[in-house]
Amino acid sequence: MASPVDLASLPLDELTRFVTQALQEKPFRAKQLFHWLHQRGATSFEEMSDLSKALRQKLAQVAELVTVTKDLEQRSADGTIKYRFRTADGKLIESVYMPSPDRKTLCVSTQVGCAMGCRFCATATLGLVRHLKPSEIVAQVHAVNREVRRNEGLDTLRPLTNLVFMGMGEPLHNFENVKTALELLESEEGPNFSSRHITVSTVGLVPMIERFAAETDVKLAISLNASNDETRERIMPVNKRWKIAELLDAVRRFPVKQGRRVTFEYVLMEGVNDSDENARELAALLGGLPVKVNLIQYNENPGLGFASTRDNRAAAFQRILEAQDVPAFIRANRGRDIAAACGQLANVEVAP
To answer: Three-state DSSP class for 14?
Structure first.
């Protein structure tokens, strides 16, 4: 028997072909089905009340709804909520909801674990278990939309306003599935997220940055974290394959359109990459590029051997960059008390 069709991984054009050719149904049924999947986030065929019982039975025979189930919810003192989701095959992933007065942001995972091996990152300790399917990526968004609607008493189907692909995994290592997920999330017939409100982060897979630029329209963030190759190779193995100069060449070719200015993320670690000399080196690297730098004081992970840069050192680092006309911002770390902050996602339960 053929494997059931993963409906929630199909963009509307592919879903239409499936509905009209495999099921011999009218094209408008595909749009109805797509609305249920990606506007309402349906998790069962029974919910799809405007589809006939016969069609729902037919779908159940040849297709499946791949989704995720909430396994754990942890709330931070700063309002951040970390959700641990369980996939159909029992794997665990985490998503982080960060509400603020002007936006509701979700940090999305793209893999179970991660293969990049960054020495300071808790997710790296898991290794790569597998890629997430497009349906599993978007299912995180649908699930948190449901949670926010219920918890905050909202009527809108899509309370989330912003998405950052900065959770577990390296998005460009799972590029095809991430690309499909972006198409689903940006669809006018689905959640209809604006490309300006979606950011995808990478450790710097140089060949994939060119594809990302050509085949998507969302924003790019690069996890740089060092001002020279020696330091970056020590903390980020990816730099042994693609040096900083190659990475910056890819950024220079990145199309600056529709507000797609590249963001560099720089995690400040005490005594590793936070000196005045490091700041001057970084300013020299980035000078003249249409970029900005987000400075992130390291979120400590027990056993990894790194410490967070102190506030005064982070501020001094920022001043040096800005004096060289490199826009730099010290990013507030959200959810540290529940291991939900940048670099802390490792399926660890922490009591706030």
So the answer is: helix
pLDDT in tens, the chain (352 residues): 579 999 999 999 999 999 999 999 999 999 999 999 999 999 999 999 999 999 999 999 999 999 999 999 999 999 999 999 999 999 999 999 999 999 999 999 999 999 999 999 999 999 999 999 999 999 999 999 999 999 999 999 999 999 999 999 999 999 999 999 999 999 999 999 999 999 999 999 999 999 999 999 999 999 999 999 999 999 999 999 999 999 999 999 888 765 567 999 999 999 999 999 999 999 999 998 989 999 999 998 888 999 999 999 999 999 999 999 999 999 988 998 888 878 888 877 665 5
Residues with catalytic annotation? 94, 342
Separation CA 258–CA 217 (nearest Å): 8
Give CA–CA dist 166/102, Å, rounded: 20
Residue 182: give the domain boundaries: 69-338
- Are residues 19 and 147 located together in one domain of the fold? no
Q: Are residues 137 and 225 in the same domain?
A: yes
